[in-house]
Amino acid sequence: MCGIIAAAAQRDAAPLLIAGLKALEYRGYDSAGLAVQEDQQLRRVRAKGKVREMEALYLADPFAGSTGIAHTRWATHGVPNEENAHPHMIGRVALVHNGIIENHASLRTRLQAKGYAFTSETDTEVMAALIDAHLSKGMCLREAVLATVQELEGAYAIAVISSDEPGRVVGARRGAPLLVGMGIGEHFLGSDAQALIQVTSKIVYLEEGDVVEISRASAQIYTGDGMPVKRAVHESELSADAVERGEYRHYMQKEIFEQPRAVADTLEARIGSGGVLSNIFGVDGEKLLAKVKGLHIIACGTSYHAGMVAKYWIEDYARLPVSVEVASEYRYREAVVPQGTLLIAISQSGETADTLAALRESRRRGYLGTLAICNVPESSVVREADLKLMTRAGPEIGVASTKAFTTQLAALALLTLHLANEQGMDAARYSELCEQLQRLPRAIDEALQIEPQIVQLAERFVHRRHALFLGRGMHHPVALEGSLKLKEISYIHAEAYPAGELKHGPLALVDEDMPVIAVAPNGPLLDKLKSNLQEVRARGGELIVFADKAAHIDGATAGGSILRIDAGGDFIAPAVFTVPLQLLAYHVAVLRGTDVDQPRNLAKSVTVE
Ligand code: G6P
């Protein structure tokens, strides 16, 4: 969502903070700002728009100072403008905040009665005033933050400085991540490891409710009730070049092309000649999975589509009932949980507010256990689930998710095979599916070779305003994912339907201005899909068919363009067919000149409800 970086450094803070914000910009990019302490004064610069716009203002009038805080914002309360940008300054306090304070209105009224005047529409400014009010009672900054967070309802990660306490930054977290970077003779705070990797690889992950005070010399953590506490220092495996764009024009393109490696890494040492290794969920996990009678999957966005594919897989192959639901819905309704049900939370970031809240909510619903499928090892979702299966995609920077999706599919395929084997799947079929899964990295690599054809195809979309995606069975979620990619980054309105549903509504939209993209793998539903395509053709719609090389479908049947992909097998086909759809969205967006990696109004990690 928003990004935080703070420094108690031995050098000028502003350049470090700006570099950190650039690494965090994928989290939000409506506005940015920083504040630095200089001779018992706070200096601040803020700007609407990208970090580089704030940087230009700073460079026009730079200031020194080795202690500071900075923020890149994705607006929740108040439009993106300079007044609402962080840091917020009131009295002697400057503060940056990720999350939402739900009781900000009542706090605001109380503080106004005490004489505080507010210049922004944000909930954050209220927090800054509350800290300042506590400082006025003679508390130090740490005490004032501890007292303030006790009065807050909602979610926050904050970093605060005070003009009265040079060289000190206080941070706190509840419901949004905050990390401490342990440098040599300097310390930092950041909302994720990517912001900190430029300065240190030694990271401490704060726990819920923690408050931390950093200076050059020390980083002292306190629990929410003010007791000093020690937290483990982790060596981050992130390398600075993992977050570099390299030769690629956009992170999204780089991440699409990283998929063969990312999927291979996710499968590595988890599947061998004898099948899926039974210990990939740990000893406890193996025992727990042996008792599973059904599964509930919760997730948001692209991760939700991965869950939808898994429903087909697990029901088809393991014959266990599966329900999939977007986390924001699940958390607010009373789902029926039959005995022996496992809850799976799928999340790239592990910090999506709705997914995390749904996982927490599931605790009181009587599940057999919870499993996180996630890309960030120290994330909240991973730490709060009973079992975990990590995707090994590496950092995903492009807001539109690509390699996270295919690695989630790889992880879910491993789970499917494990469960199918447990449920007594035919041995020959099991080993055939295992072989397919092992071929997946190569199959994705081959699918990527279609890029030159996609570049040509993309030209036909540049001036389109709508597009319809069709798939059947486990390729319906693939169609959904293709349409999500197109709308996210090219701003073309796109919808996806199971092809059999076409005649129940969307066919009314089909005319010569409506491109219809169909995913046509080989399989029992191919003939049904061909009939659906005829329905489109008869209405003059422009058809673009992604067909399996093995599928008997020709240009005449397709009645439009046909692009052939080697799906590599029925099981892995959804992952393989996703690739050309990602490339299509990418190249259409490039031709339309949109901001591919940071599309308007969106954010990578949505840590607010
Ligand atoms: C945001 C991102 C999507 C992502 C979704 C879920 O909407 O823009 O790309 O799929 O959040 O994120 P998660 O980290 O939980 O997978």
Features:
7-stranded antiparallel β-sheet, Glutamine Phosphoribosylpyrophosphate, subunit 1, domain 1, alpha/beta, binds 6-O-phosphono-alpha-D-glucopyranose, Glutamine--fructose-6-phosphate aminotransferase [isomerizing], single chain, GATase_2_dom, 2 domains, EC 2.6.1.16, 609 residues, globular
CATH topology of the largest domain: Rossmann fold
Number of helices: 20
Shape: globular
- Portion in strands: 15-25%
Mean pLDDT: 92
Give every kind of bound small molecule, once each. Answer: 6-O-phosphono-alpha-D-glucopyranose
Low-confidence stretches: none
Share of residues in helices = 25-40%
> What is the total domain count?
2
Name of the CATH superfamily of the largest domain:
Glucose-6-phosphate isomerase like protein, domain 1
Structural class: alpha/beta
* Gyration radius from CA atoms, angstroms: 25 Å
Strand arrangement within the widest β-sheet reads: 3-2-4-1-10-9-11-15
Number of strands: 27
Cα separation of the termini: 10 Å
What does the main sheet amount to? 8 strands, antiparallel
- The CATH class of the largest domain is Alpha Beta
Please identify, by name, the CATH architecture of the largest domain: 3-Layer(aba) Sandwich
